[in-house]
Amino acid sequence: MKAILLFFLVASVLSAPTYLVVSSLTSSTIIYPPKKTVILEPVLNAIRPDHIKGSGAKWIFDNSMDSAGNWPNGYTATVQALFYADCQAPATLIITGDNSFTAYVNGVKVGKGDNWDIKYTFPIDLKCGLNNLTAVVVNGVPSP
Fold first, then answer.
1. Is residue 132 assigned to a domain?
2. Which of 5, 31, 43, 100 could pair covalently with 144 via S-S, beta carbons 3.0-4.6 A apart?
3. What's this model's pTM, rounded to 2 decimal places?
4. How would DSSP label each residue in the chain?
5. pLDDT tens, 28-54?
6. Could you tell me the residue range of the domain that residue 62 belongs to?
7. Would 6 be classed as within a structural domain?
8. Does residue 99 lie within any of the structural domains?
9. Are 134 and 104 in contact (CB under 8 A)?
10. Interior CA angle at 126 toward 57 and 17, to 5°?
11. Across-strand partners of 40?
């Protein structure tokens, strides 16, 4: 009986996602352009406040928008999040960006996308200890 109970307990624990890092004001840093800060992006947070359901992730960008609340066409920012993993393990990155992005984990390109409405998923391998998630995001038109 103990083996069966343990199996169901393990199965329920493994089926619930564990989020190691989510985009927010406190977990993310703008590393390019220099001297910019992370802000909550106002338009997309209003349209899709829980785009990755139940994760707590927020739409973020840097504070370079113009007086109309837009970023210039082709504007590029690099966002970084450092996080720890207990041990080396496969994981899934769920990410999107407006208008396009390229994602890197520990310096290795893991994927890219160009549709903000799609939640892209990429298999990734985490290492024990400190991991680095970096996204290079490019604005395609003068817009949020």
1. yes
2. 43
3. 0.82
4. -HHHHHHHHHHHHHHS---S---STTT-EEEESTT--EEE-HHHHHH-TTSSTTS----EEES---TTS-B-TT-EEEEEEEEEESS-EEEEEEE--SSEEEEEETTEEEEEE--TTS-EEEEEEE-SEEEEEEEEEE--SSB-
5. 999 999 999 999 988 888 988 888 888
6. 19-138
7. no
8. yes
9. yes
10. 45
11. 60
